[in-house]
Records
---
Amino acid sequence: MTTRLIYFAWVRERIGMPEEDVDLPAGIETVADLLRWLKSRGEGYEHALQYPDVIRVAINQEHVEHREKIAGAREIALFPPMTGG
Amino acid sequence: MSGGVLPVVRIQRQDFDVAAEIARLTQGRADIGAVVTFSGLCRDEQGALSALELEHYPGMAEAEIARIAAEAVERWPLQGLTAIHRHGKIAPGENIVLVVTASVHRQAAFEAANFLMDYLKSRAPFWKKEHRADGSEGGWVEAKEADDEAAGRWKSSD
């Protein structure tokens, strides 16, 4: 199944693109698994996800914890802590 | 008491008019006793900043602020609630965010506006990038732990 990944702020800048569609390999079950897999995909990803604990994640436009299962996610967004307001 | 209050949430590039937004909540009714507004503005940081660039997550920004607003009308007896957040390039002195709350007595309006801003800062998907006055590239504004703590204090009161 294809999943859309969306990146914002310095996560977007470091990875070098605003979004991409990926086919997740078997065994990627949680957000934490996804971050670990992405981090191994190249220099930009490594830079963006160097400290995975600070990365905030939303599945289908709702905040989730890193232990959340990603089965059925259409859209997963990765971004730094928010600074609006 | 929250029945019937439909929060107004807008994410927009253009500026907003605070007086017009208050009027939108109060016009044609005589049951509102208190209106609280909070406006957040762009600071120039002692002249060092020429603008802030606000990036947002279209769709989720609206949805998340609507979720926070729905919680506010659930928790406090409000008669109206408006939350507007701008995105794009914003110059020092310009508006960034507006929260308007209306209630019979002031306490509910004050508290709900405060709650809304605390949650909005730590949960609404917006990110500020600095443009520096000397032309050098500014960085992304870092999130403050104090903002997370400010949001957390509303949990302990449950």
---
Amino acid sequence: MNPKRLLAITRAGIMESLQFRLGIFVTLFANLIYLVLVYYLWKAIYDSSGTDVVNGMTFTDTMIYLILATALFNFLEMFVVWDMSRKIQSGALVLDLLKPMRFRKYTFWSYTGNHVVQFVLTFIPTFIVVMIVTGGAIPLGLNIVWFIIATVFALIINYNIEMLVAPICLFTESTWGINIVKETIVLLLSGATIPLAFFPEKARMVVQYLPFRAVYDIPLSILLGKSGSDTWQGLLQLFALQIVWMVVLTLAGNLFWNCAVRKVTVNGG
Amino acid sequence: MSNEAVVMKNVCKDFKVLNRHEGLKGSIQDLFSRDYKTVSAVKDVTLTVNRGEIIGYLGPNGAGKSTTIKMMTGVLEPTSGELLVNGKVPYKNRTENCENIGVVFGQRSQLWWSLPLIESFKLLRDLYMVPEKDYEEMIELYRSLVDIEPILHKPVRQMSLGQRTLSDILAAFLHNPAIVFLDEPTIGLDVSMKAKIRELILGLNKEKNTTVILTTHDMGDVDALCRRIIIIDEGTKIYDNDIEHLKNYFGSYRTLKIRRTDDTWEEYLIDEKTTDVMDVIMEKQKEKKIKDVKILEISTEEVIKKIYEGGAR
């Protein structure tokens, strides 16, 4: 694969995202409101529990986790399902199929630019603010490197989850409901809204092996040194889980897409 | 490379369509219905397009033009028959095929909406892996054919429809493809823009020997660009020859224009094989006084209109 091609698409994506600078500020503002809400909600939960540590997490731990999860969510968020349903309805999908690149690859790289912009403009500032406010509660070291690797894996897993849902529009011709269901499932089961530590024991046993966790919970755990990621063995386990899901979902996504694209080529979409 | 850009042999394309029922009850029935009917969009079409040709691919709305184009680009798979584009089966090698074709849909833009045109060009250059030298040459050629300076640094979303279509056509030719498909490129454009776009297409075809397959409803496009036209109706090819032949394809028609004394013009389409023009003039003279008479060659537009209306079959 020619890296120049991929860089060119990423570059265009960055430039396109930067056109919507107002949107970035709105996102930051919306996050602020959301985080105020989260702050008071969890404060009430901790106050009523009567102890400082709930499920092994202090109030500060929980807040750091949720703030970073929100920032990570903004950065990882993709609109593949939404974009594809719009393209199918307007017939513009044909234009993407006419690019001299495999569709899945082209689509993935066309989002990369946006990820880069969001990472720099929302995740890094949030991270720095958290560091300043908590007085350096997040350890800085090799975990940053592992975190970045885990985030790249998370990106690929998230994309594949999206690509498993998006082609459904080709069959249903409507996606709004499906997209909402997908988003809710991902946000809940990935630990982006409630830390996985707060899940009931039995539910957690199941959830911790599902791919959703690999999107938000694993990168965050690695960054914060939780879930045993402070030991080599624990770290490898987390990475192994990500890699397994990455491979499985990529294969499944490929298969499903090929199936869906056949529907387009046979019946005109 | 062989001399044929596109070869189609007995190509058919069927679509399976759900039989929809009327009313609320019908809509609920449709949820569980397995009642499909087959619609043939393209029936047994055989044609060859040679390199360097500009082909007008015509037909009334819903005749199967877009379906054929989509098959040639590899987006649709033919139900049966043989289809080769640049010597390859397009739907089996879609990605590869796309490197060698350019496509413009008059109603959609493939450019990056919020970026200046030059950025779209650079992106396409990298996407199609065009060597820097060829790219520079192409831009130079564009400069010589149209005035691109005013639009080069303008974001696509701020362009007028004409500028956008122009840009889209330039973008489709940028990687110097063997074939360019233009699907109604002049739709919605003003007269001078249409002329500009026709000139551009002609210039690019001449310079690069690019095969152009053009669908349009504007006979001005056909007259200005195409030597050969193919007409398809209800999925079947009904005409495939020069424009000159078309005019006496189903009789030697002429348009008779009569000016009355009150300066109103009347128009009659006359088939010289069955009716004598003089007879008509005589007859009209009996009705009312005639001030002036003109006998004209039938225009392409009128021939096409007659064909679409079923006069040819």
